[in-house]
Amino acid sequence: MILDGKTTAADIRAALREEIEKDREKAGRAPCLAVVLVGEDPASQVYVRNKEKACADAGIETVSYRKPASMPQKELEEFIASLNADSAIDGILLQLPLPEGLDERPCIDAISPEKDVDGLTAVNQGRVAMNVPGLRPCTPAGILALLDRYGISVSGKKAVVIGRSNLVGRPIALMLGSRDYNATVTMCHSRTPDLAAVCREADVIVAALGKPRFVTADMVKPGAVIIDVGINRGEDGKLCGDVDYDNVAPIASAITPVPGGIGPMTISQLLVNTTKAWRAKLLSA
What we know:
Layout: H1 5-27, E1 32-38, H2 42-58, E2 61-67, H3 73-85, E3 91-94, H4 104-109, H5 122-130, H6 138-149, E4 158-162, H7 169-176, E5 184-188, H8 195-200, E6 204-207, E7 225-228, E8 232-233, E9 239-240, H9 245-248, E10 254-255, H10 262-282
Parallel strand pairs: 1-2, 1-3, 4-5, 4-6, 6-7, 7-10
Antiparallel strand pairs: 8-9
Helix pairs in contact: 1-2, 1-10, 2-10, 6-7, 6-10
């Protein structure tokens, strides 16, 4: 079974559009996302355009700010503080990575947790660890939304997460192992001994390490669910994931394609988080 993130994300956008249209009059306005892009990285520009387009499709307004790569650290943090104070803005997206010379962590943590629609502040990451309500990191939330959409339960299953980044690996490991999902999770990384043997025990593999076609067929047990978070260029120049899709797909019971899998789901959860932030502020009364 191919887990179609592109179609699922489109369905989520359509549902959000209906939800926003229904509540817009009561709220007095549509949700609003501030998008901050520092520098002129071509890939970041593409990602930002895709996110802005998805917002428009869901009925979410965007206010875009393009800042020079030479922007000083303090000035960027002060600018983020001004967005926190702006009552017309529900969410703040700081596109990463930042240009060389800027420290990402203080800039991320300068964002108000209630407007942190990427779910990357230390506060919201802590909420993930404690399994208390908050805005969740978009890629892990997108993974779980896709599994839910296809009715794939991980309760009681062995899950292996390859990668320990704060963006994907750590939060998805915590979320899969929470009381909401009840998987038994092993988080692996570059220093995990005999990684292939660990993976062969897994009912679910989440590959989020950024190495083209790293997960091969001999690492996967028949019937496993494969979630491929990677987006890479292979030696042949073609876009590929962290999983050797052609050889792993016949073994797996379900697998995400690249492209069209987790990428669209990540953007869809940005829209979900923005709508949640809007609702919490304007519709909670």
